[in-house]
Amino acid sequence: MSHEPIAKPVLGIESSCDETGVAVYDLKAGLLAHRLYSQVRLHAEYGGVVPELASRDHVRKLLPMVRETLAAAQLRVDDLGGVAYTAGPGLIGALLVGASAARALAWSLDVPAIGVHHMEGHLLAPLLEADPPKPPFVALLVSGGHSMLIAVEAIGRYRLLGDTLDDAAGEAFDKTAKLMGLPYPGGPELARMAQLGTSGRFRFSRPMTDRPGLDFSFSGLKTQVLLAWQQSDQTDATRADIARGFEEAMVDTLRIKCLRALDTTGARSLVIAGGVGANRRLRQQLDEAARRHGFRVYFPRPEFCTDNGAMIALAGALRLAAGQGDSTAIHVMPRWDLESLGPLDGEPAAASH
């Protein structure tokens, strides 16, 4: 559905999983305010996200966070020109909480609302920085649920180059940490442990780098780590060394595939997005590769690598400014193909903050 392009700030709501994110973004002034609440402590005793508990916590937190974010931006609710929310992919109950609140708010204000693709939000997160990338570029989206390489020809024109055949990168981090007895959430704990490990004591394969193509597979790497851990003395020092070996294998695999994607497309810019994009070793290795091979690499700041409302507000603002918008129906898509998104009618430059 088409709407008149907006010129006022857009409220963004993220509720796809276990983080409640709210932000206000203005295409001229940039990011005005953002707030994030994580449910990590709520789900820690279960060792993973419990969908029903996640949905209930979004209900409790969302509206107070909207008020808090608007106050931080020094705005009243009727200063908003539109509302953006994550419509998918994600947990259906969690998505419905954000969608329902966003639709009700937009209806009460008589402003347009738009459902945003969660991965497009991640992909566009580097546009929140002072020196944003410009299409065309290659994007590596690496998170707990996704590992994919995307050719970005323009905002909204995406071509899948490679995807994971099994575990996503973040999922592999979390599962590997769990099998070695590290606390939830395991991925960041494993990365911290890897900083203490000795390089070279454990070397694991770089999966699917010895064959053509840009797809990923991390289940075999996870099995190698499990066997190494079971056959070891299981001391803290060994745990750190195995974590180091796993992280090096993961980062090396991602680096190799990124270089291959750049060669395949001819692009000279690489965007890294998603939670794994906050990994220190990955950032160091890709910065070094960029210097050596003569391309530019762009990262969002770490707080915008994980799920957040700022990326949803930005993505929604760009589409609303192009006159796009949805019907008043509350509609979410737990599974949603990124390539199915349409391009912008016009592509206004996003303001940095």
UniProtKB/TrEMBL annotation:
Binds 1 Fe(2+) ion per subunit. Pfam families: TsaD. GO terms for molecular function: tRNA N(6)-L-threonylcarbamoyladenine synthase activity. The keyword Cell wall biogenesis/degradation does not apply. Substrate binds at residues 141-145, 174, 187, 279. It comes from the Bacteria. InterPro entries: ATPase_NBD, Gcp-like_dom, KAE1/TsaD, Peptidase_M22_CS, TsaD. Its EC number is 2.3.1.234. Required for the formation of a threonylcarbamoyl group on adenosine at position 37 (t(6)A37) in tRNAs that read codons beginning with adenine. Is involved in the transfer of the threonylcarbamoyl moiety of threonylcarbamoyl-AMP (TC-AMP) to the N6 group of A37, together with TsaE and TsaB. TsaD likely plays a direct catalytic role in this reaction. This is tRNA N6-adenosine threonylcarbamoyltransferase. It comes from Tahibacter amnicola. The lineage of its organism: Bacteria, Pseudomonadati, Pseudomonadota, Gammaproteobacteria, Lysobacterales.
